[in-house]
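DM from R.C. (forwarded with permission)

"hey, sorry to bug you on a friday — could you get me a structure for this? deadline for the figure draft is monday and I only need the backbone to look sensible"
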Amino acid sequence: MKKHGGEELLTDSTGTIRDFLQEVAEAQSSALLLDYDGTLAPLQQERNRAVPYAGIASVLQPLMQEPRTRIAIITGRRAGEVARLLGLTPPPEIWGSYGLEHLHPDGTLETIAVGERTKLGLEEAEQWLIHQQIDRHAERKPGGLAVHWRGLPETTQHEMRCRALLGWFAVVQRRDMDLVEFEGGVEIRAAGFDKGDAVRAIVRELDADAPVAYLGDDGPDEPAFQALDSRGLGILVRPLYRATTARAWLRPPEGVLNFLHQWLEASKNGGARFATASGTQVE
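My reply, with the result:
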């Protein structure tokens, strides 16, 4: 590690990722787990237009066809929404709404039902937004309600945050729910569900020696990084570094595209052929 601008930077990302991809090349099976917004797609004020970075879909499609690699998207969005934005046919495995939804590769959608207490909490949280006249900025999904202010003036963002939290703090305490802030908004949701749960569910189904990586960009991705611990590689995806429990760092979109192409090469070629042919331009 070294200091830069008051923050610690990961200086060994290239070596760490290169060594990890060599493990992928030598393994019989592996898993590539990916956040969506900020990782595969740029952050957008108009969320329904957040399509992937150029080139992402064209490398994910062949990766999905590699028998030795399991691809899964883990997102706070609804699973069907991500499937539409990705535009892949068929869509990949997607864990939506922080794991409350699970879209299988065969198109089957499983949804975990939340309890009555949570349902009442979400109704109260939405009524508060209506009372504050900010409900048009709300995103409704299974087990959660989010308010988005990305792209609005800074003073408006601060005001919306304060107004939402003013009423939601009481709902969280009364209904035993979770309150999670992310870049560009805040969400109230069912307690006990985060991206780490989805990661652990996938890891339980993998071979004990299967390499697994998770790529994500902001606060809600930290539980996923932590769930991997020493079991796999957490990779922070951001233009600028921030403090994180991830062990490597890539800049989007070039770093992510390079990483995906190298994973595809490792999955296809394997072993010594990958070691001699692969590049290391991952940042």
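R.C.: lifesaver. The chain has a mean pLDDT of 91.
me: no worries. The first strand starts at residue 2 and ends at 4.
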